[in-house]
Write a structure and sequence with these properties.
The complex is a heterodimer of chains A (296) and B (443). Chain A has 296 residues and is α/β, with parallel strands linked by helices. Chain A is built from 15 helices and nine strands. In chain A, 34% of the residues are buried. Classes of the chains: A alpha/beta (296), B alpha/beta (443).
Chain lengths: 296, 443
C-alpha cells in the first residue's frame, strides 16, 4: 500500500477502524519519517488495535512484545539456548576439539530470537508492537530507546546485527508512569482519547452492521454519560461498548430500556464499586430517560 | 518561503518552551521534516504535525492548543493581542512608579519588589492612605535614622503580603517571562491566561485556593497521582532481580536429575519490606482543605501500602485508620468529618503527639515513618518541640509536610523550632505533595 493520507484514511475505514483525522495524519507522519509511534491514552481506547490494523493494512506480521515489570533484555532481545548448548557440550565431550566446539556453541542456531531481534531481523517490513511500555522498569526503557534509535543490536559473540528493514514500531502506554524524555524524543506522539458520541456511533455501526440506528445512538450516548461520571473508575472501553451493544442486540432489544440496562450493565462495568457508583449516581431509569431526552 | 516556514516554526517552538513544554532539538528537526510532507495550507494538518512531533505529555495539549491558536492567528488579531499586552505593561509601569514616588523614607524609595509595588497601587484608596500615613509618620518621627529603614520596609512588606492574599482573586499579578521578543511576550501572556488550565495548572495551584468547581478535576488528578505512585511502589518491591541470590541448596537438589549439570538455577530473594507509615494530619480550621486533599492521596495508596496508620489532630489526636478501605473516598471523608471531634478546631501539636505516644505506642516502631501534615501553627510551642524530639527518637524517620508557603518560613517561629528536629518539606500544592511522596518518602 502506498502511504498517503487519503489512502490511509480509506484503509482505516475499510478495516473498520473509525478514527479522527488527527490520528490519520499522525500515523502517516510516523510511517513517512520512519519513527516509532508512541500512543498514550486510557485503557480500551484502541491503542493496541491501531498496531493490529497497521499490520493488516500492510499485510505483514505483527510481532508483539508485551511489557511487564521485570522484563529484561533476555526476554525482549535474545537469549542463548543454554540447555541446548549444555547438551551439545555433553554430546561432544569426547569427540570435538575445544575451539570448534566453542565456535559452534555461539552460532545462530543456538540464539533464541526474542521479539525485538525478530523484528529487526525479519526479511520484510513487520509491525513491532511494544505494548504497555509504562509497565517496564526505567533501565529497560533506556535500553529500548537505544535499540529504537539505531535499529541495530550488538551480540558480543556474533557482532552487530543491523535491521534488514526498519520495522513499523508502535509503542503503547496507559500513562501509569511518565516515560523518559529520551524515549519520547525518539517517537512521534499520539494521545488517544475516548471517542465522542458521533464517532462512537460510527464505530458501533461499522462493527455491528445489524444494529438499528436508534439502539446504536442510545448506546453511544449512554456510554458517554457513564464515562463522564467521575466516580466510575474503570471507564468502559470501546470493546466493552461493542460487547454491550451486541448483548442488547442478542436480547432482541431495539431501544435502550431500563430492563435492558439492568440485564446487561455488567458487560460494561466490571467492578462492584463501579456498579454501585452507576446505580447511585445515574441508575437504569435515569439512563433511559437521558438517552431518550437527548434524542428528542 | 522555506526560510519563512523555518523561522515561524522556531519562533512557535520558542513560545512553547517558554510555557514550560520541553522540546529537544531533535524534535524541532522532526517537526520541520513533518511539515515538508504535508499541505501547509491545511491548518488541521499543520496543527496535527506540530502536536505529534512537539507535544508529548497529555497535560501540555491544552497549552499547545492555546499557543497554536494565538501564534497562527490572522495578523490583525496578533496585533490586537500585542497592543493589549503593551497597554497592560504601561499600566503596570504606572503603578510601580506611583508606589516608588509615594513610599519613601527620608527621600529614598523603599526597597520593594515590583509585585509588592503593584499590590500597593491596587489596594483600596482608604487603606492605601493608611499605609502611606504610617510610612510618613515613621519617617518624620524623632530620632529616626537610616538604620530604621529595613524595619519600616519589613512592616510595609507584611501589610502588602496581607493585601496580596486578600486580593488574590481580583489582582492579576501574573508576569510572563521575557522572551526578548515583544510579540512573543504578548502571546506568552495570552497562552498563560486564556481559558481554563489543564491538570498542570491544578497541580501548581495552592490546595487552599482550588475552587469548588475544580474539585472533581482535582479528585481525578489525585486519583491519577496515587495510581502512578502505586505503580512505583509496587515496582520497587518487585525489582528483585538485582537482589536475587543463587540458592545453591535448591539448585543442586533440582539438578540431580540432570547428573548434577546446572540446567535450572534456583534463586532466593529478600522478603519484601513495605514501609510502615504513620500519618498525622492536621485538621484544624486553617488546615481542613489541605487535609482533605492529603487524606485523599493517602486513601489512594492505602490499598498497596496496607500498613498506614492514619490520625487526624487539632486540639487532640484521633485515630481514623478504621474508616479507610471500607467504602469510597467521599463516604470515608464524610465519616471522618462527621464522627471526628477534631475537625476544624484550634491546634495543639503537643497534646496530639503526647496522645500518640501514650495511647498508641505500638505504631511507633523502629521501622515506621511518621508523616506530619500541618502548617506548624500551634499552641504551646516548646512542649510541642519536646514531644516531637521524643517522637523522632522512637521511629525511623519523621517527615513534616508543611502547607505554609516556604516564602513565609523564615518569619515563622514554629517552623524554625520544628525544622531543627525533623525533615520538613513545603507542601501547599498537589505538585509538592506528589514530589515529596515520590522523592522523599518512597525513594
Amino acid at each position: 500500500m502506498e502511504v498517503t493520507i487519503p489512502a490511509l484514511r480509506k484503509a482505516f475505514r475499510d478495516v473498520g477502524y473509525i478514527t479522527d483525522e488527527e490520528v490519520v495524519i499522525t500515523v502517516y507522519l510516523a510511517l513517512k519519517l520512519e519513527k516509532p509511534l508512541l500512543i498514550e491514552g486510557a485503557p480500551g481506547v484502541g491503542k493496541t488495535e491501531l498496531a493490529k490494523v497497521l499490520a493488516a493494512l500492510f499485510d505483514t506480521e505483527l510481532i508483539r512484545l508485551q511489557c511487564y515489570e521485570g522484563l529484561d533484555e533476555n526476554k525482549a532481545l535474545y537469549e542463548w539456548n543454554y540447555q541446548r548448548q549444555l547438551l551439545k557440550i555433553q554430546i561432544s565431550r569426547e569427540t570435538a576439539c575445544t575451539e570448534d566446539l566453542e565456535r559452534d556453541l555461539f552460532a545462530r542456531e543456538y540464539l533464541l530470537e526474542r521479539p525485538l531481534l525478530r523484528a529487526i531481523q525479519a526479511d520484510r517490513k513487520v509491525v513491532l508492537l511494544i505494548d504497555e511500555v509504562d509497565k517496564t522498569d526505567e533501565e529497560f526503557e533506556a535500553f529500548l530507546f537505544e535499540v529504537l534509535s539505531d535499529f541495530q543490536v550488538s551480540v558480543p559473540e556474533l557482532g552487530t546485527l543491523a535491521a534488514r528493514q526498519i520495522p513499523v514500531v508502535v509503542l503503547t502506554s496507559n500513562n501509569e508512569r511518565e516515560l523518559s524524555d529520551g524515549l519520547k524524543r525518539r517517537c512521534v506522539y499520539l494521545y488517544l482519547d475516548y471517542p465522542g458520541v458521533d464517532r462512537e456511533i460510527e464505530i458501533i455501526r461499522a462493527r455491528i452492521p445489524d444494529i438499528g440506528e436508534k439502539l446504536s445512538t442510545e448506546v453511544a450516548r449512554a456510554v458517554a454519560l457513564i464515562r463522564s461520571d467521575q466516580d466510575v473508575r474503570k471507564k468502559p472501553s470501546i470493546a466493552e461498548t461493542l460487547d454491550w451493544a451486541r448483548a442488547l442486540l442478542a436480547l432482541e432489544k431495539d431501544r435502550l430500556t431500563k430492563a435492558g440496562v439492568n440485564q446487561t450493565i455488567n458487560l460494561l462495568l466490571k467492578t462492584k464499586a463501579d456498579l454501585d457508583a452507576f446505580h447511585k449516581n445515574i441508575g437504569a431509569s435515569r439512563l433511559e430517560e437521558y438517552v431518550r431526552a437527548e434524542k428528542g | 518561503m522555506k526560510d519563512c516556514l523555518e523561522v515561524n516554526v522556531v519562533r512557535f517552538i520558542h513560545l512553547l518552551r517558554h510555557t514550560g513544554v520541553r522540546i529537544g532539538s531533535g524534535e524541532v528537526i522532526d517537526a520541520l521534516n513533518a511539515l515538508t510532507l504535508l499541505d501547509l495550507s491545511d491548518r488541521r494538518s499543520v496543527r496535527a504535525a506540530l502536536q505529534a512531533t512537539l507535544v508529548k505529555r497529555p497535560g501540555e495539549r491544552a497549552v499547545f492548543d492555546r499557543a497554536f491558536d494565538l501564534f497562527f492567528a490572522p495578523p490583525e488579531e496578533k496585533q490586537q493581542v500585542t497592543a493589549r499586552h503593551h497597554h497592560k505593561w504601561e499600566k503596570r509601569q504606572d503603578m510601580i512608579r506611583q508606589a516608588e514616588e509615594e513610599l519613601t523614607f527620608q527621600g529614598q524609595a523603599l526597597e520593594l519588589s515590583d509585585r509588592e509595588k503593584t499590590v500597593y497601587a491596587s489596594i483600596p484608596e482608604a487603606d492605601r492612605q493608611k499605609i502611606l500615613d504610617y510610612v510618613k509618620k515613621t519617617a518624620e518621627g524623632k530620632n529616626v535614622e537610616q538604620h530604621f529603614r529595613p524595619i519600616l520596609e519589613s512592616v510595609v512588606k507584611g501589610s502588602l503580603s496581607y493585601w496580596r492574599k486578600s486580593l488574590r482573586n481580583e489582582l492579576d499579578l501574573s508576569e510572563a517571562p521575557d522572551t526578548g521578543d515583544r510579540e512573543l511576550n504578548a502571546l506568552l501572556e495570552g497562552v498563560g491566561s486564556t481559558g481554563e488550565g489543564g491538570f498542570a495548572s491544578l497541580l501548581e495551584e495552592d490546595m487552599q485556593n482550588i475552587a469548588d468547581k475544580d474539585l472533581p478535576r482535582a479528585r481525578e488528578l489525585i486519583r491519577r497521582l496515587a495510581r502512578q505512585m502505586v505503580a512505583r511502589i509496587t515496582r520497587r518491591y518487585r525489582q528483585s532481580k538485582k537482589h536475587k541470590q543463587l540458592d545453591l541448596r535448591k539448585s543442586i537438589r533440582s539438578n540431580i536429575r540432570f547428573g548434577g549439570t546446572m540446567f535450572r538455577l534456583r534463586y532466593r530473594s529478600r522478603r519484601i519490606q513495605k514501609p510502615r507509615l504513620v500519618l498525622l494530619c492536621d485538621v484544624s480550621g486553617s488546615m481542613a482543605r489541605y487535609a482533605s486533599f492529603v487524606l485523599q492521596f493517602i486513601y489512594g495508596i492505602h490499598s498497596v501500602v496496607g500498613s498506614i496508620e492514619s490520625f487526624v489532630f487539632s486540639e487532640d489526636l484521633e485515630r481514623v485508620t478504621p474508616y479507610f478501605g471500607q467504602s469510597d473516598f467521599n463516604t470515608t471523608m464524610l465519616q471522618i468529618i462527621n464522627r471526628s471531634a477534631e475537625w476544624g478546631r484550634g491546634t495543639n501539636i503537643a497534646t496530639a503527639l503526647r496522645t500518640l505516644r501514650v495511647k498508641f505506642p505500638s505504631v511507633l516502631t523502629g521501622d515506621s515513618y511518621v508523616i506530619i501534615v500541618s502548617d506548624t501553627k500551634t499552641m504551646a510551642l516548646d512542649e510541642a518541640a519536646k514531644e516531637l524530639a521524643q517522637l523522632r527518637r522512637k521511629v525511623k524517620d519523621v517527615v513534616w509536610l508543611n502547607t505554609m508557603p516556604d516564602t513565609d518560613w523564615e518569619n515563622a517561629k514554629t517552623v524554625m523550632a520544628f525544622q531543627k528536629l525533623v525533615r520538613m518539606f513545603p507542601c501547599n500544592t498537589l505538585a509538592d505533595l506528589e514530589k515529596v511522596m515520590r522523592k522523599k518518602i518512597f525513594v
